[in-house]
Specification:
Layout: H1 2-7, H2 35-38, H3 43-65, H4 74-82, H5 94-113, E1 127-129, E2 132-134, H6 142-168, H7 177-185, H8 211-225, H9 248-270
Antiparallel strand pairs: 1-2
Helix pairs in contact: 3-5, 4-5, 6-9, 8-9
Length: 286
């Protein structure tokens, strides 16, 4: 459903709220696109990207919790991940300029995490995932890799939803920003802060397998978007009904149109495709 809604986005330039490419938020990502971790062609580079991300992961999330902006272009994030793989680049290369940009924006993050551009390997020292020390010479087992990617997708989706709400919200009643964030967090299960995402043991929230389990989160999602600019789908009025009054077909229609409205509004403001919630895939227990 989410993937279908993504394909349906109208990417015509006329859709953009700000059509200038110099808009500071256009096309930027709060965190690396998870696809960057899986696209390298060889495992050595893939491992270097993964370790670089995990090395700064705790500190970076702490800074996000403090509402420090880390928005960078996709290429800048790629160059950031490359810091644990490539030798020091010449100062006149585009990648070196991106590194300078990253150092300016994330200076405190890099210093706290011990990442130095001058070092040959940004991944020196132990790297942990959920209290488990990972090997520095081989990719982690598939279940761990899947958890890392899932969390990064979920964090990006949550951060993008908060950011889009700040741009698209036209509610004349001004709500305290902290209260508004708490309203947004109702779209996510077991989430107490924007940068705190619990790894589930099954598909849950907006991607739960059962439509009845998804419904509370879909309604919270629609409630958030109900005060956004643009013509809202009529089915958004379902949020005013008692949940027991809604049929399966009505819920499926509501979440499909909610996903389409969200993704189109996201493109209109940020000029790129939004990252979407994913199911978590667990390796079978043998």
């Amino acid at each position: 459903m989410w993937a279908d809604a993504l394909v349906a986005v109208d990417t015509s330039p006329e859709r953009l709220v700000e059509q200038t490419k110099t808009s500071p938020h256009l096309g930027h990502y709060a965190l690396p696109d998870p696809a960057l971790l899986v696209t390298p062609g060889d495992d050595k580079k893939k491992l270097a990207y993964l370790l670089t991300w995990l090395h700064v992961h705790p500190t970076l999330l702490y800074h996000l919790q403090k509402q420090d902006s880390t928005a960078l272009s996709n290429q800048a994030w790629r160059d950031f991940l490359e810091m644990g793989h490539s030798d020091k680049l010449k100062n006149d290369t585009a990648a070196a300029m991106h590194r300078a940009e990253i150092r300016k924006i994330l200076e405190r993050v890099l210093e706290t995490a011990g990442v130095s551009e001058a070092s040959d390997n940004a991944n020196s020292g132990l790297v942990y995932w959920r209290d488990e020390a990972l090997a520095l010479d081989k990719l982690p087992r598939i279940s761990v890799f899947q958890e890392i990617l899932w969390e990064l997708y979920e964090l990006n989706f949550c951060l993008e939803l908060v950011s889009l709400d700040q741009h698209a919200n036209r509610d004349p009643v001004k709500v305290d920003p902290d209260i508004r964030v708490q309203q947004i967090l109702r779209c996510f299960p077991d989430t107490s802060a924007v940068s705190v995402i619990m790894i589930p043991y099954a598909n849950t929230g907006l991607v739960a397998n059962d439509w009845r389990e998804r419904l509370p989160f879909v309604l919270a999602f629609v409630n958030v978007m109900s005060c956004w600019e643009g013509l809202k789908p009529k089915v958004f009025n379902y949020r005013l009904h008692h949940v027991e009054e809604l049929s399966q077909n009505q819920v499926l229609d509501l979440e499909r149109q909610a996903a389409c409205f969200y993704m189109q509004t996201f493109f209109n403001h940020f000029g790129r495709a939004s990252l979407i919630p994913h199911c978590i895939l667990k390796a079978p227990v043998i």
